[in-house]
Structure formats: structure tokens, C-alpha cells
Amino acid sequence: MKKSLYSILALMAMLIAFTSCEKDEIENTATVDMAGEWYVHVSLVAPNGEELDPDWFGDGYYNITTSNTAANIATEMWLVDPTCYYFPYQVKINADPSTMTFSSASNSENLYGPSAYLYKNYEMIAGETVTVTDGKIVKGGAKTQSGMPADYIEFYISFSDDPFIIDPELPAGCKIKVSGHRYTGFVNDEM
To answer: Is residue 95 part of a domain?
Structure first.
């Protein structure tokens, strides 16, 4: 009898152990192909496409992110640049995963608010709103510093009341271009 009881208890313990080892399927977010961390730089581009300044903000290369919103739908994402010295931004963008393109509505709210740098140094309020245009992600469209393929990101961004882009010494219609590749985490890929 004791032997049967031990056998039953051992069998129950094994069943509990096997059923507790089952793993739940983890689902991806709706924007999984477009979301990620990106290693980018900001340049000033003339209306004819000529790059006038390869480091317009003076920050060199740095990281930004794209991620799903709390609604987790494929047609909207967050675009976040918390480290930019002049114009940090967090803006909701419209996304199209089928074409890997994105943009924002004109003058979308910048959740970081106006530029603290400009307010502190120039006593001006600028950057309360953001407009993102012509955003695209190209799978395998970039080469990292180490020569490995990576996804490419590019978009144009403008900020409300940006005092630098309306400089009379610049050609009319200049744009701020953000471009780079998916962040790899490898030191050799950081420029």
C-alpha cells in the first residue's frame, strides 16, 4: 500500500512538473519590424538634396528609438530622441509596416516640450511641436562601421519656431535630415 501511494505521489509530482514547464507563446508588438534602437546623425540638407552640414546639431552620432504605443496597433508608433542637446523630442508618428514608411501630423505635440537649451541660452520658446516627414526604414539598407549589413532609417524633422533653420544665410527651404542604421551594440559599429 505504501509503495502504491509513493508511486502515485511520484507520478503526480512528475505531471505537475511537466505541465508547469509549458511555455506561453510570446507575441511580438504590432510594429516589431519598425521598432528598435537606431544609431543616427542629423544633417542639414539644401532643397536640391545637397548636404550643407553633416552634423547640424553638433551631437555627432547618437541613439534614438522607435517603439509601439500602448494601443499596440500597426499604424502608430513613438519616435523618441531624449538625448539631443538642442531639440529633444517624443512624438507619435503614423506608421505603415507594409511599406516601412512613417510620418507625423503637422505640428504634432512634442511630449518633451520646448527646448530647455534654447530657453536657457536664448530666452526663446521653440520646439513645442514637431513635424516628421518622408520617414522610411530599409531592411538591410545600411552598412555599419564594421561593414556588416543593418537596417537603414531616414526621416526629415522640423520644430516649431526653430531659430536656426530660418537663418537668412541659409538657402530657403533647407531641411533637417536624420539618418543612420539599427543600433547593433557592437563598439566597432559606433562611429
So the answer is: yes
The number of residues in the chain equals: 191
Tens of pLDDT along 14-49? 666 665 556 667 788 888 899 999 999 999 999 998
Q: Indicate whether 3 belongs to any domain.
A: no
Q: What is the pLDDT of residues 123-151, one digit of tens each?
A: 778 788 999 999 999 999 999 988 999 99
Q: 81 with 88: CB under 8 angstroms? A: yes
Do 66 and 94 meet the contact criterion of CB atoms below 8 Å apart?
A: no
- In the chain, the amino acid numbered 75 is T
Q: What is the CATH number of the domain that holds 63?
A: 2.40.128.220
Backbone angles phi, psi at 11, to 5 degrees: -65, -40
Question: What is the residue range of 165's domain?
Answer: 25-189
- Is the residue at 48 inside a domain? yes
Predicted model pTM: 0.82
Among candidate residues 93, 109, 111, the one with its CA nearest the CA of residue 156: 93
Q: Which residues contact 43 (CB under 8 A, 6 or more apart)?
A: 51, 52, 53, 54, 55, 56, 176, 177, 179
**Residue 6: inside a domain, yes or no?**
no
When divided into structural domains, the chain yields a total of: 1
